[in-house]
User: Fold Secreted protein from Streptomyces albiaxialis.
Amino acid sequence: MRLRTTFGRTATRFTAIGAAALAIVGVTATSAAAGDSVSVEGAYGAATFYDKGDLFAAYDLHADGRSVQAKLKVPYRGKTYSVRASGAGDEARMNLNLAEGATVYLKMCYVDNGTADCGSWHKGVA
Assistant:
């Protein structure tokens, strides 16, 4: 009987330690995979970065002669990507394969006759 009781306590301890270890691993994996989408909306269009799939897009909402440009700055690559939608209902998008947890910056510009009028950068996480 004494051996069985000691074994039972030891098994209980291992079970508790294993459960705690799994909980820690689960939290770490979830935190590392979490991203942060960002969107900029204006009167004539919108720009969006979706952390799921690393997609960014520009949306032109009005037939007003202006186009809507989305710019995505990816500091760890040292690059800025751009897509432009022209015409009411038009959408332009680009998929990027970014490192999980990478910081990105999105901004939207209205382009009229080749002149861009841009807003500020907005932070997101891939």
In short: The beta strands are 38-41, 45-50, 55-60, 67-74, 79-86, 91-95, 103-112, 115-118, 122-125.
